[in-house]
Specification:
The complex is a heterodimer of chains A (292) and B (227). Helices cover 14% and strands 42% of the residues of chain A. Chain B has one domain: Orthogonal Bundle (Urease accessory protein UreF). In chain B, 70% of the residues lie in helices and 0% in strands. Classes of the chains: A mainly beta (292), B mainly alpha (227). At the A-B interface, strand 13, strand 14, helix 2, strand 16 and strand 17 of A face helix 3, helix 4, helix 5 and helix 10 of B.
């Protein structure tokens, strides 16, 4: 496994966070930030003892050649919710792609939910994100992503060069899931099989021992009830409900993909599933991502 | 031994791999009406060629061919695990394994080589799962077919099976099917070239709308195809 950033070059922003369980709550036991990455003080949105950490990029946007490194360790039995303060905006990158590398470690029984704001790529932007997850077989992972286009002066849709999100998950030391999302608009990358005429791509990757066939069927039924009009799929297309698919992974877990016309619509799909898992598996209140 | 004859047998649409029972998501587009005639079928197959076939299958054929040439079973095992991890929709993963294991069985009798035998053993012992692209590359590579020929043959023969399946399912006239294939034949060489220069980080990149349809096929009511 190689990092895409040369170690001798300092990162534009670096963030390390270690979360452990202390009594009935999880708490940060180690924290380090440098450059243009900050983390706001944890808050506890509900009574579950799960802290919510908000990552902040005070610079406001990502530029060419920027590199970001994040490492989050969730120790045995601890739980954490990661989010961002605002959308990640990637501007023109003539100096080379923005590179973001995330390492996530989940110990036995640990739980991590990552629910960032959308990634917005503007004209001539290139963004490469690599997420490496190392988790115990009984740990619980939920990684959400929403990608969309930024406004461009000529008002034509999708003027960015490339957004590439690669997630690799190892479960109990064994390579288990590779999730590769690539959008290259100039290279036929917004055709009907790619985005189906929609502006927002949403993805949710769940790896969890509870995510069996029954859980997938329940998630599917819930999504059909919320996001399909009574006439079925054909009618859903015309009324522009989001287009949603869910499938079982080779390990306990599932992948969800959605194509939507707005951030609200994409978030509604993701939050519906996250909230179902919270209620069914953890007896936890729905997501509360109020920005601080 | 004639390589042309080997190639013709390997890519014969009547080779009993079970390809006729898989649509790789096309059937969900038939159900929604997005694919309904010659023009929409051609557009879908061109899209499939430009996405899944170029980003995943063609690159897997190349990697498997390189490993088979070096008789490097460890590299093949790594590719087998990678494919299991990156074929996300369950029916696509299952199709790759079902057709892969069947082709391996055929290859042991009809395209025997040391590397085919080694991969079969690894699958039987559980070290590998048995993916179709790997089985195809080893069956052909073991008989001396070169990488470019194998990639082109794989892409064209996969499109042929899909076109024949669509002719049955839409249904379309036989001549319409042949016109679609004649146009696709002119598009395959560019896909072969693109897959040769593919950025390694794009291996397995999914096409989101295609993937959603492949996932929705799992719960489609009336189905002719297993994927």
């Amino acid at each position: 496994m190689t990092l895409s950033v040369h170690p001798a070059v300092p990162h534009t922003g670096e963030l390390r966070l270690r979360v452990a369980r202390r009594g009935s709550r999880s708490t940060a036991v180690g924290q380090f930030t440098s450059g243009s990455l900050r983390v706001l003080r944890a808050h506890y949105p509900d009574s579950s003892g799960q802290p919510s950490f908000t990552f902040v990029n005070p610079g406001g946007g990502y530029l060419g050649g920027d590199s970001y490194a994040t490492r989050v360790e969730v120790e045995e039995g601890a739980s954490v919710l990661l989010t961002t303060q605002s959308a990640t905006k990637v501007y023109r990158t003539p100096q080379g792609p923005v590179r973001a590398v995330q390492h996530l470690h989940l110990g036995p029984g640990a739980r991590l939910e990552s629910v960032p704001d959308p990634l917005i790529a503007y004209r001539e932007a290139r963004y490469h994100q690599d997420t490496h997850v190392e988790m115990a077989p009984d740990a619980s992972l939920a990684l959400a992503e929403i990608v969309t286009q930024g406004w461009s002066p000529d008002r034509k849709p999708f003027r960015f060069e490339e957004v590439s999100l690669v997630t690799r998950v190892r479960v109990g030391g064994r390579f288990a899931v590779a999730d590769n999302l690539l959008i290259q608009p100039s290279d036929g990358g917004t055709g009907p099989l790619m985005l189906g005429g929609r502006s927002h791509v949403a993805s949710l990757l769940v790896v969890d021992p509870r995510a069996d066939d029954g859980a997938v069927a329940a998630v599917r039924a819930l999504l059909a009830e919320r996001f399909e009009s009574p006439g079925g799929r054909a009618a859903a297309h015309s009324s522009r409900e989001p287009l949603v698919g869910v499938s079982r992974l080779a390990v306990p877990g599932f992948a969800l993909r959605a194509l939507a016309d707005s951030t609200q619509s994409a978030e509604a799909v993701i939050h519906t599933v996250l909230n179902w898992m919270r209620a069914s598996w953890h007896g936890q209140a729905p997501l509360d991502l109020r920005k601080l | 031994m004639s390589r042309t004859s080997t190639l013709l047998q390997l890519t014969d649409s009547a080779l009993p791999t079970g390809a006729f029972s898989h649509s790789f998501g096309l059937e969900a587009y038939l159900e929604s009406g997005e694919v309904r005639d010659e023009a929409t079928l051609l557009a879908w197959l061109e899209g499939f060629l430009a996405t899944q076939l170029t980003h995943t299958d063609a690159v897997a054929i190349r990697r498997a061919h390189v490993a088979s040439h070096a008789e490097d079973i460890a590299q093949i095992e790594a590719l087998d695990a990678e494919l299991t991890a990156l074929l996300i929709p369950v029916q696509i993963r299952a199709a790759s394994l079902k057709m892969g294991r069947r082709l391996l069985e055929i290859a042991r009798d009809a395209f025997p080589s040391r590397i085919v035998e080694e991969y079969s053993t690894a699958v039987a012992e559980g070290g590998c799962r048995g993916h179709y692209t790997i089985a195809f590359a080893l069956a052909g590579g073991g008989q001396g077919l070169d990488e470019e020929t194998l990639v082109e043959a794989y892409l064209y023969s996969t499109l042929t099976s899909l076109a024949y399946n669509a002719v049955r399912a839409i249904p379309l006239g036989q001549l319409a099917g042949q016109r679609v294939l004649a146009t696709l034949r002119t598009k395959v060489p560019a896909a072969v070239v693109r897959s040769r220069a593919a950025d390694p980080r794009h291996f397995g990149a999914a096409a989101p709308a295609l993937e959603i349809h492949q996932m929705q096929h799992e719960h489609q009511r009336a189905r002719l195809f297993m994927s």
